[in-house]
Structures are given as structure tokens and as C-alpha cells.
Amino acid sequence: MLPVSLFTFHISIFNIVFSTPILLINFNRPDFTRRVLTTVMQQAPARLYVFQDGPRPSHPEDPERLAAVREVIGELTSGTSTELFTRYSDHNLGCGPGPADALSWFFGHEECGIVIEDDAVPHPDFFPYAQELLQRYAHDSSVMAIGSMNVDRERPTPYSYYFSMMNRNLCAWASWRRAWEHFDLRHFAVSRGTLSRALRRYGCGILERLYWCDRLDEIHRDGVGNSSWDMQFLISIWLNHGKGIIPNVNLSSNIGTVVDATHPSGQGNIIDNIPTSPILPLNHPPTTEIQRGADRQFHFRYFEPSRGNWSQGKTCLYAVNRFVKRIIGHQGPWRQKK
């Protein structure tokens, strides 16, 4: 295993090798895999890890499509200098436990690295951007993730990136083993009160705290239908008062939220197919202060767009209503339809 400090580009006889390890998480979409892996292989990575979840029992087409994905992986990595490691599951873990298993496998072998899912096409600048920041913040334990996506309407700082609570979509990102070690898929030991207090330290308002406490309830109940791992990772960051990095331009395009997607979100999602832009050379900010305003704007654009402009009075009434319902165990509206 290469030491964490070794982030230089190694010159080989035939090409320049990108030294930061990369994990590709994919499933049954050969066209998506081809598009994303082509971008990855253009970097000539020294080490590539590939995880593929297993077939779903209720989907007879899965074995053929999974085999097609493996053919693409073999085709694009054959004859290269890249050292390939694969983890192909025999049975379907699900889109929550599956990626979690992949990440634990990856960070079990590497101190840090880049993670890309098969529906995120990174800009070429994303790779050196992530590599430089992995090195720069390797020993700052408060920095726990490096993002690629930016949907901000305005630039919150004049620098190349800013610091955030990291409430962004983790489709193409980078991190360290030290950050992933805090991950917990179910967070059974975490109460609503504990999470609410952690979010209050970031200056989150009551609507944001209620939203994420409700997500915690879903995680406790069934892992959000066994379909989530990224919310759990965000919660682990917040419980440790960590932060992430957001580029001031968009560095990855999500191609999978509408058609043939694991989590189809419908037409018009703000993360769909956003154009990407170059970011190099990096202009580093002088501090690691979190840009709270940008985080709040993202929350109410992406997670709760219908509540972003609520008045303080309406917010208080909503919070009291939710509290009373929780105390008496009532679900849904007060007036039941006949």
C-alpha cells in the first residue's frame, strides 16, 4: 500500500499514472458504466477498485445485465497499467448496504481515495482537484469529505471551494479512512435529541433539525427501505462536528436521476445533468469556516423547497404540531378523510 503522503504523478514508460486510488460503485447499467469508466480510465489510475451488487431475485434480467457491465469493465481495463481489484456480490445487498460494504472494503485497503458511482460523470479537473485536497487536508480530522457537485445560484466565496456541512449528493467524492471509520448504517445509539443538538451546533434552524431527525427515524426503522447509506454518512459527520468541501463550480454531472435510475426523482430535479466546468489551478480559502448561508439555501432548494420561505410563526406552528403528534403517536393529518 502506498503511503498517504504519496500523491505525486508517477511517470511510467507509456503514460502518466494517477496515484490516488479510485472506487467505482456500479450495478446493472452497462451504458452508464461505460461512460463513467471511460472518464476514469483517461486518468490512468494506478489502482482501481470496482464493486458490483448482486442480482435481485425478482428481476430475471439482472444476471445478463450484470454480465454486460463486467464485460465493459474488462474491455476498458484490459491492456492498461491499472491494477484492478473487484468485489462482485453473489446476492443483492441493496442500494444502502451495498455501497456501504463497498466503501468499507475500499477504505479497509486504502487510507484515502476517490469514490464514483456509475451515474456520476466527473469533469477531468475533478481528479487532480480531489487529489490535491486529499493531500492538503489529510491531517485535519474536521474535514471529512470532498464533494464534486455544485448547484448554488451564487458563489459564496471568491475561492475555488468552500467548507460546508456536506449536505450534498455523494455521487463523485473523495474521503479518508479516518472519516469512514465513524460510519454507522443504522445509528441505533443516536437519539433524535442527540442529532438535534449536533445540528444546532452548526446553526441549523428548527425545520432543518426536524427534517433530519425524521430521516433518523427512517434509518432506525428500516434503513430508509434499505436504500440509503449517504444520509447515514452525513449524520456521522455531523455527530463528530465535521465538515466537507464544495467546489465553487460544478465538477460532476449526474446522469441517472430520471431514466433507469436506482432512485428516480422525476423530471426537473436540480441535480440532473448539470454542466461541468474547469476549476484548476486551485485558489485555496484562508480558513475552513463553514458557509452556513450556502448550506441553508441548498437544504431548502433540494430537500424542502416548499418550506424555504415559511414565516417564523408558521414554522413554530409546524414544529408544535409535529411535537404533539409524536407525543400521542398520531400520524397523518388531524382530520381523517371519510
Low-confidence stretches: 1-14, 261-268
Based on helices, strands and strand pairing, what is the structural class? Answer: alpha/beta
Largest sheet: 5 strands, mixed
Q: What is the helix tally?
A: 10
Multimerization state: single chain
> In percent, how helical is the residue content?
25-40%
Describe the model.
- The structure is a single chain.
- With 338 residues, the chain is α/β, with parallel strands linked by helices.
- Helix content is 37%, strand content 15%.
- The protein has ten helices and twelve strands.
- The protein has helices at 30-41, 62-77, 97-109, 126-136, 177-180, 192-201, 206-226, 230-239, 292-303, 312-328; strands spanning 10-11, 16-17, 22-26, 47-52, 83-88, 112-117, 120-122, 143-146, 161-164, 172-176, 243-247, 252-254.
- It has a five-stranded mixed β-sheet, with helices on both faces. The protein has a three-stranded mixed β-sheet with strand order 8-11-9.
- β1 (10-11) and β2 form a beta hairpin.
- It starts with 9 loop residues before the first strand and ends in a 10-residue tail after the last helix.
- Mean pLDDT is 88; it is low at 1-14 and 261-268.
